[in-house]
Amino acid sequence: MHTPRFHRFAALLALPLLAACSSDGSETGVSDMSSSYRPGCKALGGPSYALHGTALLPQGAADAYVVVEGEKIAAVETARANVPAGVPIIDTNGVISPGLVDLHNHVAYDFLPFWNSGKRWSNRYQWARASAYETAVKAPYNAVKHSGHMCEAVKYGEFRGLVGGTTSIQGSMDLTCTRSWARNIEFTNFCSDHVRQDVLAVTALTQSDADSINAQFSSGATKAFIVHLAEGIDDSSRAEFDYLDKLGLIKPQLVAIHGTALTAAQLQRMGQAGAKLVWSPLSNLALYGQTTDIPSAVAAGITISIAPDWTPSGSANVLGELKVADRVNRERFGGLLSDQQLVAMVTSNPAKTVAMDGEIGSIRAGLYADLVVVRGDTSQPYRALIDAKPADVLLTSVGGQAFYGSSDIVSAIGDARSYVTVDACGESRVLAATESALPIPQGQESLDAVTQTFASAGVTPIPLFSCDGAPEFAFH
Fold first, then answer.
1. What is Dmax (Cα atoms) for the chain?
2. Is the CB of residue 47 less than 8 Å from the CB of residue 400?
3. Could you count the other beta carbons within 10 Å of the beta carbon of residue 29?
4. Residue 258: partners with Cβ closer than 8 Å, 6 or more residues away
5. Distance between CA 297 and CA 276 in Å, rounded?
6. Which tens digit of pLDDT belongs to each residue from 245-255?
7. What is the pTM of this model?
8. What is the pLDDT of residue 440?
9. Which of 95, 97, 64 is nearest to 79 (CA)?
10. What is the DSSP letter of 338?
11. Do residues 342 and 350 touch, judged by C-beta distance below 8 A?
12. In this structure, how many other beta carbons lie within 10 angstroms of the beta carbon of residue 24?
């Protein structure tokens, strides 16, 4: 969704910088800050532990012990006796899922409340020029930006993701002050920088631009090209697809955000090309009264991910947007998508979409221990994740480190981090809002200090937790 004035987060047309990796996996030729940052190349130490619960595994749900050593999943065992001696076992009594992967967000805006424009629009360029949008969204955002508090804005947005089980997020800014929380999809991860994004109108791309992008596709330098495409319900929105097709950019690397206006024929063309789709139903419904033709996308064989967009017109985080997708699936698509398919759309599908499925998105040995544990009916584990409310999130770990959760599970993990107690819609949880081990600028800034910066800009941020569901008006 998004204003065409929103700047590009990452260089688009220049070839991406690929960090050099030595034979031991360490990063060379870059600063120590980059090499020691958690999603970089240099392995970080951490506690060893095993989480016991109903795990959502690639082959299906099973009672299992997920053994974590340092940053990675060392093993997935089905018998307690097979957990290595000396590794503490933590009985979660819950559902263990891969960490949620958010492929569509504008994180610096996620301190803002939901904006009800009072009308429906035909495309994203209309509301972005409305005076009401300027007042409700751009003015407070600019107040924070011009006060020099973008670090705090992005950190706060990432905190709101972490408390909902998000472990990787697209749409953060390239700021070192935010480098210790959720993984930032479009920057260096796992010793590679192969994701590009452009939030501007695709019609601004020239044939020369397209030739350069296609060269990156061919070389493997760019494995995912994320664009806002056909966001609206009118012919001009649909024409954006035809424009990209004419440029030769409907390729497997293309990741189309929204696609609300796309016809069944256009979606079929996407599927034939292997292009991907990111679905943000709440934002679509609130702004346009319609959402993407997911049944046709499924029929076309498109890999679909679910993501929240941003708080001015979307959900608080991926966990919230999952509930919206579930409701739309039941009320508009006749229950086409199974619970397991919906969960894949926030875990394995997005990881595959950005060519990181060899590192995240699933629970299996060798992958990074990006995990979320939720409370719920373990006899229906996929439904438990879909229905999980904010207080049901018991753990969010990134690279094996406990960033959020219930104090008993976090304490049992024994991570050497400092935590602040937060109120998760009536239940106590702890959040690692500071970073002291790595040289992160402003890393030791407390959660209170982060929120106070908004006040200094004359802005009141929305609470860390959204305890209510999606606004009802969006569905009618």
1. 64
2. yes
3. 11
4. 1, 228, 229, 230, 231, 278, 279, 280, 283, 284, 292
5. 10
6. 999 999 999 99
7. 0.93
8. 87
9. 64
10. -
11. no
12. 8
Cβ neighbours around 66 below 10 Å, total: 26
Return the half-sphere exposure (C-beta side, CA atoms, 13 A cut-off) of residue 267.
Answer: 23
Q: Encoding tokens for residue 182?
A: 């959720």
3-state SS class at 352: helix
- pLDDT, mean of residues 311-324: 98
- Token output for 77: 């065992």
Domains of the chain, earliest start first: 42-98+377-452 (2.30.40), 101-357+468-475 (3.20.20.140)
- Helix ranges (H only) for 332-378 are 339-344, 348-353
Identity of the residue numbered 28: T
- Positive or negative torsion for Cα 441, 444, 450, 452: negative
Which region among 43-52, 155-164, 416-425 has the lowest average model confidence (pLDDT)? 43-52
pLDDT reading at 460 higher than 50: yes
Instruction: Report strand pairing: 20-21 vs 27-28.
Output: antiparallel
In the block, residue with structure tokens 């090499």: 35
Q: H or E stretch including 217? A: helix 207-219
Q: Give the span between the Cα atoms of 157 and 309, in whole angstroms.
A: 12
Beta-bridged to residue 62, according to DSSP, are 55
| Residue closest to 20 by CA, chosen among 35, 8, 7 | 35
| DSSP per position, 218-231 | HHTS-SEEEEEES-
Residue 30, token pair as written in the block: 């870059």
DSSP string, 130-179: -HHHIIIIIHHHHHHHHTT-HHHHHHHHHHHHHTTTEEEES---S-GGGT
Give the C-alpha separation, 451 to 464, whole Å: 10
Residue for token digits 């006040």? 455
Interacting residues of 265 by C-beta distance below 8 A, sequence separation 6+: none
